[in-house]
Amino acid sequence: MDTDVIILGGGLVGATLALALDAHGMTSIVVDPADPAVMLAPGFDGRASAIASASGRMLDAIGIGATLGGQGCAIRHIRVSDGLAPGKLDFRPADGDGALGTMYENKLLRRALFDAATAATQVDLRMRTRAIDVVRGPAGVTATLDSGATITAPLLIAAEGRHSPTRETAGIPVARWQYDHAAIVGAFHHEHSHEDVAYEIFYPAGPFALLPLPDDEIGHRSAIVWSVKGADGPAMMKLGDRAFLAEASKRMGGFLGELTAPSPRASYPLGFHHAARITAERLVLVGDAAHGIHPIAGQGLNLGLRDVATLAEVLVEGKRLGLDLGDPALLDRYQRWRGLDTFMVAAATDTLTRLFGIPGKTASAVRRFGIAAVDRLPPLKDRFMAEARGESGTLPKLLQGLLV
C-alpha cells in the first residue's frame, strides 16, 4: 500500500486529521482540488470559528496550538437572550476553569493547518488535484488522480464537505432539509470592548450571534453570524455598510456603542443533513460529509474535530494491534463512538432552531421563563457548559490533550 489512509478533502477537518495521524507516525495522502493561492488569500473572509476548549487541547497536542498562540480571542462568557427582552442565561466558568473556547478567523486556521501539513513528514498533501476514479474492494482502496497518479491504501476517508460526492457514490442515505434562513457572516468594529463575551440573541427570524475577536489596529471588533429569513438574505447583502451597521445595532440594542469599519460580508443558505451511517466498505465519513447543523450553537466545526479525535484514536490503536485499517470491526467502533453524539447534537440544535423561531408574545414569554429557570439551576448550566467545551460523553485522548 502507498499510504495508511487516503483523505479526500484538505479543509479544516481533513488537514487536522492528517496532522493527528502524523503525530502518531501514520501516513496519509490528502487530495484536494482547491488552489492554495485562493484558499490562503490575505484579508478577512467573513468567517470565524469558535474552537471549543476540548478541540483546542487537541490542536495543542498535535502542535498547531503554538502556531495559533495569541491570534485568537478567548470566550470567557456566553450570554443567551430572547431578543432584547428582560431575562438572560449566562454561562461563565468558575475562576480557574479556563475559557469555554477560543475564536479564530478561519483564514488563520487554514494557514496554520496548511503550513503544518506541508511540513509534516508523514503527510503527502496534493492540492489542485482530484480523484477521478476510486475503487473500494475487499483488498483495499485504489484511487486514480487527475494528475495521472494511482494511489492505494487500506482506508478512504471522505472529508469533502456537505456535498460529498464520495458519500453519494457510496449510496449512503442522508436525512436533509433546508431552513428558511440565510446566514450573514462578517465582522465589524465597535466602540466598547466585548470583554471576551459571546452573545446569542434569538429572534423569530433567526439567531443573531456576536462573537469576540482580538482587537486590531482600528480597535475592538467582533464577528457575527446573523440568521435572517431566506427571502431577506439577498436584500441584506445589498445594503450599504452604513445601513447594514444600523440594522445590526438595532439587533444588539446598541450595547457595544457605535459600530464602524465592517468587513466584507458573505451569505449562505442554512440546512440540516445527517448521514444514516458514517462508514461503508473501507470508507469513513468525517466532518460535514457526515453531518451538517444550524450554526445556532457554534458546534459545527467542533463536531468535525471530535470526529477527527475519535477516528485518530481508533486507527492508531488498530495499527498498533496489527489490524487492517479497513477492518469492518474497526470502522464499527468509530460508528458506535460517534454516531450517538453527532445525532444528539444535531437533534438538539434543530430543536433549538425551531423553538426559538416560534413567533408571538406567548412563545417569547415561555422561552424567557425557560432561560431564567436554567440560569438558576447550576447542575443544568454545568451540563450545557460541558457541551459548549466539547467535554461531554466519552472523550478521546486527543480531546483531553493527550496523544494516543
UniProtKB/TrEMBL annotation:
InterPro entries: FAD-bd (IPR002938), FAD/NAD-bd_sf (IPR036188), Ubi_Hdrlase_CS (IPR018168), UbiH/COQ6 (IPR010971), UbiH/COQ6_monooxygenase (IPR051205). Pathway: Cofactor biosynthesis; ubiquinone biosynthesis. It comes from the Bacteria. The keyword Oxidoreductase applies. PROSITE patterns: UBIH. GO terms for biological process: ubiquinone biosynthetic process. Keywords: FAD, Flavoprotein, Monooxygenase, Oxidoreductase, Ubiquinone. Residues 2-338 form the FAD-binding domain. Its cofactor is FAD. This is UbiH/UbiF/VisC/COQ6 family ubiquinone biosynthesis hydroxylase.
